[in-house]
Amino acid sequence: MERLRLLILSGLLAAALFAPAWAADQEEDGPPMLGCQKRFEALDTNKDGKLSMEEFLARRRQHGKAEESFKGRDRDGDGSLSAEEFCPQKGAGGRPGQGKGF
């Protein structure tokens, strides 16, 4: 029982110590959509307003799962991702927390 109490207290202490740093990072990045839009723009190396499979995979280490993710996001099946497909919360009906580019 004492170990459990110590574990819980350690977790609470860690949360208290790191929460201010996490909050500062969130404020710096702005709203989640803006962070996603920045990731989209960074991946769009040829600046054509869409991500090819090659651009999407360029910063990924596990290509198998990334390819599945790409195909799942490509709603219109055109072989590229628009900003709305990459960041679904940007479009109509999107839910917060979706569209994390990384």
Report on the structure:
- With 102 residues, this protein is mostly helical.
- The protein has two domains: 1-30; 31-102, EF-hand (Recoverin, domain 1), CATH 1.10.238.
- Helices cover 59% and strands 4% of the residues.
- It contains five helices and two strands.
- The protein has a two-stranded antiparallel sheet.
- The termini are far apart.
- Mean pLDDT is 75; it is low at 21-30 and 91-102.
- Report how far the terminal alpha carbons are from each other: 39 Å
The dominant shape is elongated
- Main sheet record: 2 strands, antiparallel
CATH architecture group name of the largest domain: Orthogonal Bundle
Précis, in short:
The protein is mainly alpha-helical and 102 residues long.
Label this structure with key terms.
two-stranded antiparallel sheet, elongated, 102 residues, Recoverin, domain 1, disordered C terminus, mainly alpha
Topology:
Elements: H1 2-29, H2 32-43, E1 51-52, H3 53-57, H4 63-73, E2 80-81, H5 83-86
Antiparallel strand pairs: 1-2
